[in-house]
Amino acid sequence: MKFAQIGAPGAEQPVLLHGDRHYSLQSITPAINGDFLSNGGPAAAAAALAAGTLPEVTSDVVRYGAPVVRPSAVVCVGLNYAAHAAESGARPPEHPVIFLKTPNTVSGPDDAVAIPRGSTKTDWEVELGIIIGTRASYLDSPEAARDHIGGFVVVDDLSERDFQLNVSGGQWSKGKSSPGFCPTGPYLVTPDEVDAGNLRLRSWVNGEIRQDSSTADMIFDAETIVWNLSQYMVLEPGDLICTGTPEGVALSGRFPYLKAGDVVEIEIDGLGRQRHEFIA
Questions:
Q1: Which of 88, 90, 97, 214 has a 20 to 30 A CA-CA distance from 21?
Q2: Which 8-state DSSP code applies to residue 248?
């Protein structure tokens, strides 16, 4: 199943996508959030769709917000593709490298993004995102993690590299947490429809291809990441995990950093596509 939030910023409504149609879930939940995911919401939505009790939402113009309302945490994995680690000047890690983005960075997939004040090195990163479906703490194995994954999303883990690397004090989050720096969506796709270990992911800047890779090249797969994180923190329903980006970012030195007027598009097969313009 595919779930989304559509409507004006701050007034989105939850919907289920079936084919090219949107069906309102407001009779089941006020939002696609942790409560919906962990308390039988997807099953209730499927049953209501089958029964024909969900009203269709029709509109000539649809704006997608982030498909999960404000997560309690946005946890990110760095250097999770060997080629990206190499272009960053780092060795592939033996253990997942973790950093945090603030939850208020999460924005709609097609919303404009402001270049941060003082930025000279704003960068793009197409990533597979994991949405936690049920609370996860001290999981016994990566296999056990599968039962705690509520779905997958497209994420652009935007970064300001000077903030991240040169004025960071040793941590990366300064360069990861500017407003709008986590465009997410358009859809949350449930795990039964996704082969998370074999998804093509791509990015373009102004129509020119930048990244073209597969999640098969991840050093740590989705289940391993959730299991590993659960040893160090409690993952709550609705939390977002960004699983790392492949090679092809501006940090490589092969491409210019972003400026006002640039347009970034990112896509993961089966999970949808984003398009966001950068503004001053």
A1: 214
A2: -
Number of H helices, E strands in the chain: 6, 19
CA distances from 78 to 4, 61, 95, 96, 130 (A): 27, 36, 10, 7, 14
- Three-state DSSP at 263 gives strand
How far apart (Å, rounded) are the C-alpha atoms in residues 75 and 129? 10
Residue-wise pLDDT tens for the chain (280 aa)? Answer: 999 999 999 999 999 999 999 999 999 999 999 999 999 999 999 999 999 999 999 988 899 999 999 899 999 999 999 888 788 787 889 999 999 999 999 999 999 999 999 999 999 999 999 999 999 999 999 999 999 999 999 999 999 999 999 998 888 999 999 999 999 999 999 999 999 999 999 999 999 999 999 999 999 999 999 999 999 999 999 999 999 999 999 999 999 999 999 999 999 999 999 999 999 9
Instruction: Report which residue type is found at 187.
Output: Y
For the residues of 182-211, what is the DSSP string, one character each?
Answer: EEB-S-EE-GGG--TTS-EEEEEETTEEEE
Contact in structure between 86 and 249 (CB atoms under 8 Å): no
| Phi, then psi, of 225 in degrees rounded to 5 | -65, -50
